[in-house]
Design goal:
Length: 502
């Protein structure tokens, strides 16, 4: 496959001539008269993503506080840990994460294909319907409508709505690729495309259910089969949504930040296919020491270890891409976020396979170590790469300089401090829990009761609350900074560049 990298700059276009001169200029640029990228939908999705990040992180901080002061639910069911925790995960993953993925996918696919979006009205429907779905879904979770599956708690009417919107997303994205003016398909589109296809498959299978009422249904699967299907879905939702999709973001925006092409395009393609074929089998490592066949557990463990290769291939590719642009780290806060996200990506993709090994899993399973691992990826990888992409993207969408580089640098240090404090607190809590639960006295009984062990977690949970507040304060600074950058401005109208015949 021919190597293609994004150009190092997306500077706002110069004013275009009018009348007959405009037609001639458009033809010279390789487009049709008046042809423009549909970037306004990306602008709105960026704004929606930032709003959901604040809502989701605030809910996360509140439930962290409930583990320190349990009575702050004030006896209200909708403020209980069980309901707010699911609101937190859904707002952050599907509100913040998916809105960011849609926005960056719509922005980058136009530029890597040199054409405007296919069916732009459908893109708007996709963007707005997704926000309505996340909002209504969040309200339903607070009301107690819960299907009981991790990352798939929404009940069957929402599952149907998600399917409709996701199909629209696929039509817009793949339709844009189909009408591209250049033959190669850039690697970021491979990852975005993999995200769309695999998540659709996972959602359809895991959501198969028998409706009983409007607010309640029961899974079509039962027992161990239901557990296997759920973690086939759950882990691959992490894999293809929170990893694969954000790798698409990385492969587009990292070269933009660094002003350099991807170090090895072939390595990126090899990493994509190795990632796709190995990740899909890793889910059963969530089910060690459970009532599923041992060979299924072993397969999940082995494929998790195999995942080290494509994951670290991407890490090496990213580090080598930015290797010639280290001096930009002094002045570009967006690049700082990107490079930091790479470091946490490497950490999380090393820790996950290690935790899948049975001798490690016996300590980590059902402990806060898992929470620390998840958030090293969620905060350190997903949030950081998105923050870096938005600090690059919003000024270009608005045709203005970032309102305050100083605030962006402060945000960087708050995000780093919050993430490190969070995962260190949860690692400490998790390892302590695992070792204490495995401690036996002279007659083979547990040395410590569950109540005593959980009471000893108070300092760790207090540290997690502080970490969450620090990270949330950084996100609030970013929201203000981006809002001021775009204040009083409209999205810049950009046109496809001149394109050689493919």
């Amino acid at each position: 496959m021919e190597a293609v990298s994004p150009s190092p700059s997306d500077a706002p276009p110069l004013p275009k001539p009018t009348g007959g001169k405009a037609v001639a200029a458009d033809r010279a640029a390789g487009g049709t008269a008046g042809e423009r990228y549909h970037d306004r939908v990306a602008s709105w999705l960026t704004a929606f993503a930032m709003a959901w990040s604040i809502i989701g992180m605030t809910a996360g901080v509140y439930v962290a506080a409930e583990l320190v002061w349990p009575t702050i639910d004030f006896g209200r069911e909708w403020l209980s840990y069980g309901r707010l925790r699911t609101l937190h995960t859904n707002a952050v993953i599907f509100g913040f994460g998916v809105s960011a993925l849609m926005g960056t996918a719509f922005y980058s696919v136009q530029r890597t294909c040199h054409v405007p979006l296919f069916a732009p009205r459908l893109a708007w429907f996709c963007a707005l319907a997704w926000q309505a779905g996340v909002l209504a879904g969040g309200i339903s979770l607070l009301a107690g409508w819960n299907g009981g599956k991790e990352y798939a708690e929404l009940e069957w009417p929402f599952d149907i709505a998600i399917t409709v919107v996701w199909v629209c997303f696929a039509i817009v994205f793949f339709g844009t690729i189909a009408k591209r003016r250049i033959k190669p398909i850039y690697v970021s589109n491979w990852f975005y495309g993999g995200l769309i296809i695999v998540i659709a498959m996972l959602h359809l299978v895991n959501s198969l259910a028998i409706p009983v009422t409007l607010s309640k249904s029961y899974s079509l699967f039962a027992g161990a089969q239901d557990a296997i299907v759920q973690w086939w879905y759950g882990h691959n939702a992490v894999g293809f949504l929170l990893t694969g999709g954000f790798l698409g973001m990385l492969y587009y925006f990292l070269p933009k930040h660094a002003g350099r092409p991807i170090w090895s395009y072939r390595l990126s393609i090899v990493a994509f296919w190795a990632f796709t074929y190995s990740y899909i089998w890793a889910g059963p490592h969530h089910l060690h020491y459970n009532a599923v066949p041992e060979w299924v557990q072993s397969l999940g463990m082995v494929m998790s270890l195999v995942l080290l290769a494509p994951s670290w291939a991407t890490l090496v590719n990213g580090v080598m891409t930015v290797a010639g642009a280290w001096e930009k780290l002094r002045t570009d806060p967006a690049l700082k976020f990107i490079v930091l996200s790479l470091a946490f990506y490497g950490l999380a993709t090393f820790e996950g396979p290690m935790m899948s090994i049975r001798s490690v899993n016996v300590v980590s399973h059902f402990t806060d170590w898992t929470i620390g691992h998840v958030h090293s990826g969620a905060l350190g990888w997903n949030a950081m790469i998105t923050f870096g992409a938005f600090y690059f993207l919003v000024p270009r969408l608005m045709g203005a300089s970032l309102h305050s580089v100083r605030l962006a640098n402060i945000h960087f240090w708050l995000a780093l401090a919050g993430t490190m404090l969070y995962i260190l607190a949860m690692w400490g809590a998790g390892v302590s829990q695992g070792l204490l639960w495995l401690s036996l006295d002279d007659i083979g009984e547990l040395s410590f009761s569950f109540k005593d062990i959980m009471a000893s977690m108070a300092p760790y949970y207090a540290l997690r609350l502080v970490a969450g507040l620090i990270f949330l304060s950084g996100a609030l600074l970013m929201a203000y900074n981006l809002a001021m950058t775009g204040k009083g401005r409209r999205t810049v109208a950009a046109s496809p560049p001149a394109t050689a015949a493919a």
